[in-house]
């Protein structure tokens, strides 16, 4: 079987904490010579039960419910997406998240499943390039491997475009052809499924399910969060706050009870309606995190799903 010479880059944005709430998709097909062959992007109207937009998600990508009111649904886009992806290897930055969004829509019958080889620039940075924790965000990697490449972060089409450029730059740095990387490093097995969502935060009806007793033994990579200082805000759906803080320490990280200059990750769950006030767009921890980022702090704000996707990859 001939080795691949082309690949497709995938990026999703989601409306809320449920992975079946995709509100935008970006796809870019490139070849191993660095040529962009085709681009595809679309806003997506989430299915009923998945359509609410959380403040944390809006603050990340800027997409609101009104923006997708007349957009096609994922099921309406499925044939175009499948035709674009074909059988080529799929590349993403934090593939664990993007693939789990795809799988969540597969469970709903919106998208066909696929067995394409999957390649992740985040995993490449960690395991092939041996970069330290806290330096593997998309913006940091673009700065180091594609200096001067400008992009609008968290626009799915733009993220897909620059992830493709980053992927090729990493290949050049590793002096490894695409075909060899696919043979030796690509993921091919589907991730474990939980409650039909892969996240444990909801069920097929879009409602929150009871949190199971935490089983921390399934996470074995004790350096996954090495060098990270993690803070949590909001209600978590996967496990209790105390359990996830214990998990952070098990994986080599440290826990901050409040956002400080040392915090590298702020993980945002569902905000409490009892503390919300009109005009608020997030918790006090989110407000402080944004202020620190504006001053140049290396702090990443992520949803609960993105946090678990990253440590499960």
UniProtKB/TrEMBL annotation:
<keyword id="KW-0540">Nuclease</keyword>
<dbReference type="GO" id="GO:0005829">
    <property type="term" value="C:cytosol"/>
</dbReference>
<protein>
    <submittedName>
        <fullName>Exonuclease domain-containing protein</fullName>
    </submittedName>
</protein>
<feature type="region of interest" description="Disordered">
    <location>
        <begin position="190"/>
        <end position="211"/>
    </location>
</feature>
<dbReference type="Pfam" id="PF00533">
    <property type="entry name" value="BRCT"/>
</dbReference>
<dbReference type="InterPro" id="IPR036420">
    <property type="entry name" value="BRCT_dom_sf"/>
</dbReference>
<dbReference type="Pfam" id="PF00929">
    <property type="entry name" value="RNase_T"/>
</dbReference>
<dbReference type="InterPro" id="IPR012337">
    <property type="entry name" value="RNaseH-like_sf"/>
</dbReference>
<dbReference type="GO" id="GO:0003676">
    <property type="term" value="F:nucleic acid binding"/>
</dbReference>
<keyword id="KW-0378">Hydrolase</keyword>
<dbReference type="InterPro" id="IPR036397">
    <property type="entry name" value="RNaseH_sf"/>
</dbReference>
<keyword id="KW-0269">Exonuclease</keyword>
<dbReference type="InterPro" id="IPR001357">
    <property type="entry name" value="BRCT_dom"/>
</dbReference>
<feature type="domain" description="BRCT">
    <location>
        <begin position="220"/>
        <end position="313"/>
    </location>
</feature>
<dbReference type="GO" id="GO:0008408">
    <property type="term" value="F:3'-5' exonuclease activity"/>
</dbReference>
<dbReference type="InterPro" id="IPR013520">
    <property type="entry name" value="Ribonucl_H"/>
</dbReference>
